[in-house]
Write a structure and sequence with these properties.
about 30% helix; globular; three-stranded antiparallel beta sheet; alpha+beta; four-stranded mixed beta sheet
């Protein structure tokens, strides 16, 4: 769901996707990086876009999150693009911490609303983490960005909200 679009290019992207059959496109991107998008070919629903996190945070003017509710499907889809953590750059550490300080309460509220409405939730995107050694490529630094304890702890906090890593459930040994 990551996109690198400035606002001026949203219409062009939307038109291109509509030309190949997408019925709904929601973009949360403003600076040409750290943006997210959800596009759907589903015809029988009118998704309701919900934006605002953490873009509203004055310390972090990066969209990074988009949420769309497909009411007639009883489904909420959240797109996420988590910042990289790099212990050698304090601004990256702060950005990651700020992101989670806003994202975890947001997700907690979203999941409570979904539960009350008996609605399923799917969170997709780039989590910037390799939760286990199974998720590393052969040439990856096992202690590099994506594999640090702090990233794995934050990822676990997302799961602790009641979400499931469906890839790992479906593919426990790969």
């Amino acid at each position: 769901t990551e996109v690198k679009l400035t606002v001026i290019n949203h219409h062009k992207a939307e038109k291109s996707l509509m030309d190949i059959g997408y019925k709904f496109i929601s973009i949360n991107s403003n600076m040409g990086y750290a943006g997210v998008m959800i596009a759907s070919k589903y015809e029988n629903a009118i998704p309701i876009p919900v934006h605002g996190l953490p873009k509203e945070n004055p310390d972090t003017q990066e969209p990074r999150v988009i949420t769309v509710a497909f009411e007639d499907l009883s489904l909420i889809v959240g797109g996420i693009y988590i910042p990289f953590y790099n212990p050698d750059h304090s601004d990256r550490s702060e950005r990651l911490e700020n992101f989670y300080n806003f994202y975890l309460p947001y997700m907690d509220k979203l999941l409570a609303i979904a539960k009350a409405r008996k609605t399923a939730v799917a969170i997709v995107g780039d989590f910037q983490v390799t939760p286990t050694a199974l998720d590393h490529t052969d040439n990856a630094d096992p202690n590099g960005p994506g594999a640090t304890d702090i990233e794995r702890q934050y990822y676990q906090k997302i799961l602790d909200l009641g979400l499931t890593d469906t890839y790992r459930v479906l593919h426990p040994n790969t």
